[in-house]
């Protein structure tokens, strides 16, 4: 299309006026747009006849710089025009009337044709390699299975993780809870039994520790309202260390069983032991390395009072009427196991302990 230059005697600075296309040689008055094209360090003014469209700018650009792909170009308007887009794209806006841009400045943007070609060739090659790899590894079925697994993991999980912010180093407790949530055995068991827990949080040891002349009793976990909230004792009594990971994970198995059964009866213990086996099996499949098993070793020794074992179905530590002073760790654990067995038999006879504490709007199970 022929370019038209406004004569100098009509008020346009001819020394800085470039050539621009026009729709017809005498189609109305001319208007001027400042055109800039960074890659070529170009800046000049182009004149257009009334009724010119974006495609007229692109036509002139194609004639000036044919090595660029103007079908993939964009035009940025430097000064905002009311009711006019600030960024025009080809080919979507090729027919847009550009007369509102009279006196404005625009910036042309376009990729070089050879660059665009190389990018397309690289993209095609990458897709071919990826397709061949998927076919060789049989990845397509696994991807579909993984998507379904992801949906189940999102549904059957701990939807909120929350440490106690007023206790020392809450971020470490958060990491501990996150590792429990990500434990492969816990995830597999929650998917299988369709367990959904609203909140997994830590327990303040001082609120669930009772001492009297018979000894010290510690609750290791609580399940409120069948999965609304699960609390776990992560810390030692002195708040300066964390308990053994596998011990806490076993407590979590116990509390998950309370999502179905409240009393510690035969049905509860059957489900609890089933969950423990499922978690242990997943741990074995992963090479025996539980998430966080080494990172969260408790800061206690064999003579510390927290070194006692579980007692009964209520998952408490200590609680024995006999003193453990002077006993070795093995003797303490053996005594705890014997006491636990007696309490389990008692629970099977009378329906078991109904749990400790109360949750808001409902009961809680230990």
Describe this entry's structure for a reader.
Pfam families: WLM. This is WLM domain-containing protein. GO terms for molecular function: proteasome binding. InterPro entries: WLM_dom. The chain is an alpha+beta fold. 36% of the residues lie in helices and 20% in strands. The chain is built from eight helices and 18 strands. The chain has a six-stranded mixed β-sheet, with no helix packed on it. Strands 9-10-14-13-18-17 form a six-stranded mixed β-sheet, with helices on one face. It has a four-stranded antiparallel β-sheet with strand order 11-12-16-15. β11 and β12 form a beta hairpin. α5 crosses α7 and α6 packs across α7. The longest helix has 25 residues. The radius of gyration is 37 Å and the shape is elongated. The N terminus is likely disordered.
Q: Uncertain regions: pLDDT < 50 for 5+ in a row?
A: 1-19, 22-26, 288-327, 351-362
Number of beta strands:
18
Helicity level: 25-40%
Question: Biggest sheet, in brief?
Answer: 6 strands, mixed
User: What string gives the helices and strands in order?
Assistant: EEEEEHEEEHHEHHEEEEEHHEEHEE
In DSSP terms, counting alpha (H) and pi (I) runs of 4 or more, how many helices?
8
End-to-end Cα distance, whole Å, is 85 Å
Radius of gyration using CA atoms only: 37 Å
Provide the residue-averaged pLDDT.
74
The shape is: elongated
Portion in beta strands: 15-25%
The largest sheet has its strands arranged as 2-5-4-8-6-7
Query: What structural category do the secondary elements indicate?
Result: alpha+beta
């Amino acid at each position: 299309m022929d370019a038209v230059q406004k004569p100098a005697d009509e008020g346009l600075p001819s020394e800085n006026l470039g050539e621009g296309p026009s729709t017809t040689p005498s189609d109305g008055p001319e208007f001027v747009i400042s055109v800039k094209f960074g890659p070529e360090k170009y800046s000049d003014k182009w004149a257009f006849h009334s009724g010119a469209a974006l495609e007229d700018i692109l036509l002139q650009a194609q004639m000036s710089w044919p090595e660029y792909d103007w079908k993939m170009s964009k035009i940025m308007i430097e000064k905002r025009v009311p009711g006019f887009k600030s960024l025009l794209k080809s080919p979507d806006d090729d027919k847009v009337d550009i007369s509102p841009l009279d006196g404005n400045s625009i910036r042309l943007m376009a990729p070089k044709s050879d660059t665009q070609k190389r990018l397309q060739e690289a993209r095609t090659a990458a897709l071919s390699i990826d397709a061949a790899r998927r076919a060789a590894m049989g990845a397509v079925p696994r991807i579909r299975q993984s998507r379904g697994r992801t949906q189940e993991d999102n549904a059957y999980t701990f939807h909120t993780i929350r440490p106690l912010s007023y206790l020392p180093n809450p971020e470490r407790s958060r990491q501990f809870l996150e590792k429990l949530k990500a434990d492969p055995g816990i995830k597999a068991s929650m998917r299988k039994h369709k367990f959904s827990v609203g909140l997994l949080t830590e327990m303040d040891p001082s609120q669930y520790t009772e001492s009297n002349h018979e000894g010290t009793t510690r609750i290791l976990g609580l399940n409120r309202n069948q999965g609304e909230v699960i609390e776990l004792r992560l810390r030692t009594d002195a708040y300066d260390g964390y308990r053994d990971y596998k011990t806490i994970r076993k407590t979590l198995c116990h509390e998950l069983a309370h999502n179905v059964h409240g009393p510690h009866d035969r049905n509860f213990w059957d489900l609890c032991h089933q969950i423990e086996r499922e978690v242990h099996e997943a741990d074995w499949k992963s090479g025996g390395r539980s998430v966080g098993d080494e990172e969260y070793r408790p800061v206690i020794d064999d003579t510390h009072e927290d070194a006692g074992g579980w007692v009964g179905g209520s998952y408490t530590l200590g609680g024995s009427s006999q003193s453990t002073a002077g006993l070795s760790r093995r003797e303490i654990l053996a005594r705890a196991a014997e006491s636990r067995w007696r309490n389990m038999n008692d629970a099977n006879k009378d329906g078991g302990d109904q749990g400790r504490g109360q949750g808001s709007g409902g009961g809680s199970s230990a």
